[in-house]
Design brief:
Length: 390
């Protein structure tokens, strides 16, 4: 693959997305469902596209959300729906459109208190926490994000009551129904004005941030982290967790510095990825140049993508750690320090992950569960305990 001469360098002003034009295209352009590239299409995790290409426009969001409402009704999912978004430019109008449809359908919706951004793991945590111990009235969620994709992209994901990404059968149903709505010119899509949707009795403010951060001490030994007196650095890469890290540091009294708290839908503070695109990919040495340049300032530093469901680690002296190295170490450590985990629980990995994981799994005497790319393949196993890591 050819590396762009701009890789690892700050973006020129002419390379930045024109946000007003992007938002205008979101509302003004209408997708043609007879063109395959303009139809709703769920990939490994949700529907993604760009308003400029008529693949992520208001019609897509209205159609998908109405399809989700029908799916909920058909499957008797009648608890609240947790709604969150990341910092991409198209996430804000998509969030508004989704709420208009959800409220018109009478769905109890939990939106972030103070219009806060919501990382994907936080939304999953909210669903699982609400559903714990319930026999009925289950919650589900929608997270609006194209993950680490460029600034001109948008994304829309549905998380069923399992908390994780919806499996293929679910997304295929929603996709087909959404495309039916597109073909019918949105006939059958219910909607109310945004101001009315925000005031609806079914719309509620939810404190995602403090609920999630308060629960971290139940799974992490924060006293050990604090006691180690490590000098920690974090670059949220302008993503949904931008306001979480400082709150984590304050609550748990950690020596943690957030090196960049900027939120800018152009992501102008990023260095260009290998192909000359702006991409918030914490595993890319090109996109991570700024944090790598600070490697000797911290004992260890972290970055996450725009919805904070993937990470990058920078260590003193070495620089960017290959993700599979961390995964291998984490698996080896956790399986020896989690005595309540089932002795039959397997290790999950994707086909593109390193064979180091295979070797660590063999060393631990565990079974390996190998699947295609996509966290959705691990959801059921993690829920039922047949997987302990994925």
């Amino acid at each position: 693959m050819a590396i762009s001469p701009f890789a690892g360098k700050p973006a020129e002003p002419s390379m930045l997305v024109n946000v007003p034009k992007l938002i205008t295209a979101y509302y003004a352009e209408t997708p043609d469902p007879s063109v395959p590239e303009q139809r709703v299409a769920f990939g490994t995790s949700g529907h993604r596209g760009s308003a400029f290409e008529k693949s992520f426009n208001e019609w897509h969001i209205l159609a998908i959300t109405q399809a989700i409402c029908l799916y909920r009704a058909q499957n008797k999912i009648d608890g609240p729906l947790f709604l969150g978004m990341d910092t991409h430019a198209l996430s804000v109008p998509a969030h508004a459109g989704a709420l208009e449809v959800l409220a018109a359908n009478g769905v109890e919706v939990m939106i972030a208190q103070g219009d806060e951004y919501t990382p994907t793991p936080v939304l999953s945590h909210a669903i699982l926490t609400y559903n714990r111990g319930r026999k009925k009235g289950f919650a589900d969620g929608i997270v609006i994000t194209p993950s680490h994709n460029p600034p001109h992209d948008g994304g829309f994901k549905y998380n069923p009551p399992t908390g994780g990404p919806a499996e293929g059968a679910v997304t295929a149903w929603i996709e087909a129904k959404a495309n039916e709505f597109l073909e019918k010119g949105l006939a059958g899509v219910k909607r109310m004005p945004l101001e009315k949707a925000l005031r609806a009795a079914s719309t509620h403010q939810h404190d995602y941030l403090n609920t999630y951060i308060g629960d971290l001490s139940n799974i992490l030994d924060v006293e050990a982290i604090r006691g180690a007196k490590l000098n920690l650095g974090v670059d949220p890469l302008g993503g949904a967790g931008v306001h979480y890290w400082g709150a984590i540091a304050e609550r748990y009294e950690l020596n943690l510095t957030v090196v960049n708290e900027a939120v800018d839908p152009t992501f102008r503070f990023m260095t260009m990825d290998w192909d000359g695109q702006i991409r918030m990919d914490p595993s890319s040495p090109y996109a991570m140049q700024q944090l790598i340049s600070l490697k000797d300032r911290f004992d260890i530093a972290f970055a996450c993508d725009a919805d904070h469901d993937r990470h990058g680690i920078v260590t003193r002296g070495t620089g960017l750690m290959p993700p599979n190295h961390f995964l291998s170490v984490a698996i080896f450590y956790l399986f020896q320090h989690r005595p309540k985990w089932s002795t039959e629980a397997a290790v999950g990995k994707t086909l593109v992950s390193s064979q180091m994981i295979d070797r660590v799994t063999t060393k631990l005497g565990r079974k390996l569960y190998e699947v295609p790319v996509g966290f959705k393949w691990f959801v059921d196993g993690l829920l039922n305990g047949s997987l302990a890591f994925g």
